[in-house]
Amino acid sequence: MRRYTALLLTAFVLLLLVAAGSSYLAGRERTGDHAPLMELTAYTTLPAEHASILAEAYETAHRIRVTFVPLTSAELMNKLQTDVEQGRHGADLVLADREVLLQAAAKGYFQPYISEQNDAVRSHFKDENGHWTGVWYDPIVFCANRDYLKTLSMIPDTWTALAEFPDVRIGITDFLAADASGNLMYQMIGQYGDAAAYQILRGLHPKVIQYAKYLSNPVRQAGMGEADISIAVASETMRYIHDGYPLKIIYPADGTAWLLTGSAVPLGTSGMEQSEAQLFADWLLSDEAQIALQAKNFFFLPTNPGTMAYKRFAGKNLVLYQQLPLFTAGQKHEFLDRWVKHIRLQ
User: Fold this and answer.
1) Sign of the alpha-carbon torsion through 232, 234, 236, 239
2) Percent of the chain scoring above 90 in pLDDT
């Protein structure tokens, strides 16, 4: 009998140990390294590759999983409108281009958010009422071959000077092929008026060696010596410079077009999701976000002057176009049609 009692006691103790161990492990999974991740949903017009880099970096550093929903500008606006009309909480954050942010803010789809981080951002990079804040931008620059520059006594550093410069081979992306390139035309028209803008484009046209289909091709052409100066986005130019191509950036002294990416918190985001969305919005303004992108060879210009990335940027005082009207799709189509008929095909 004593033998059976001992066996029963031993079995009971083992059961207690197993139960205690299971409780301990379950507690660790809830509160330790294996704790369930909190999740945020973000609507975005970013390329999927950029979004995945940011999501991975933020999850690794902060244990918050961000699920990006990639959308076109029109799709994102429709999503926000449907969410508001149906009283639905569709996304905790929006990360999109400036035009979408302006349109959505005008329709009242965002709630204001002001923090120490976004308060430091210059006024032309954000909404005056705090409904959205730009996190980085990508200007159009002159991407010049270094060997070509050595042959010049004077460097063309304005749009008019480049349009009138003799014997220069110019690389550029087709205005019909990429939003960033088309945006150059629209912003030129907004800044100078259509007559002056088309005059510049008319002067550039005979010097263009090829209207490329991709934003990277004009930069590659300048780096390989196939073009002397290319009109390109700064991010692609910096990527090729980082890879060792003999290029130099010239910032147009009379101003230039630019694309802005910014964040906003939609109506309907509240409670813990609202707090976490705001923290994520602040993180997008940090060096951590820029380092994550640069590690994958994506170089954008931060809007936050407090970051090291901003302080190291040699062209942070470049002149940006400030007359940026929101043209309709019909107006943009008309501008492109006029360019094709009266410049491209001439």
Assistant:
1) positive
2) 80
Q: CA 76, 77, 83, 86 torsion: positive or negative?
A: negative
Amino acid at 204: L
Nearest to 127 by CA among 164, 93, 102: 102
The residue-averaged pLDDT of 317-337 equals: 92
What mean pLDDT do residues 329-333 have? Answer: 94
Q: What is the mean pLDDT of residues 134-144?
A: 97
Q: What is the pTM of this model?
A: 0.86
> Are 181 and 70 part of one and the same domain?
no
* pLDDT tens per residue, range 210-220: 999 999 999 99
* Euclidean distance between CA atoms 204 and 341, whole angstroms: 15
Quickly state the pLDDT bin for 313 (edges 50, 70, 90).
confident
Give me the DSSP letters along 136-162: EEEEEEEEEEHHHHTT-SS---SHHHH
Q: Cα–Cα–Cα angle for 200, 189, 124, nearest 5°?
A: 120
Residues 6+ apart with CB under 8 A from 176: 182, 336, 340
CB 92 within 8 A of CB 40: yes
In terms of DSSP H, where are the helices of the chain? 2-31, 48-62, 73-85, 98-106, 116-119, 146-149, 159-164, 179-192, 194-204, 216-223, 234-242, 271-284, 287-295, 308-312, 329-339
State the Cα–Cα distance between residues 312 and 288, nearest whole angstrom.
Answer: 15
For residue 302, list its beta bridge partners. 136
- Which range marks the domain in which residue 118 is found? 38-135+261-312
Q: Given this model, what pLDDT does residue 25 score?
A: 37
What residue type is assigned to position 26 of the chain?
A
- Token pair 């017009």: residue: 45
Looking at residue 344, the DSSP 8-state letter turns out to be I
* Residue 6 falls inside a structural domain: no
CA distances 131 to 103, 108, 113, Å, are 11, 9, 6
Residues 268 and 288 both lie in one domain: yes
**Which domain CATH number covers 58?**
3.40.190.10
The total of structural domains in the chain comes to 2
First to last CA, the chain: 109
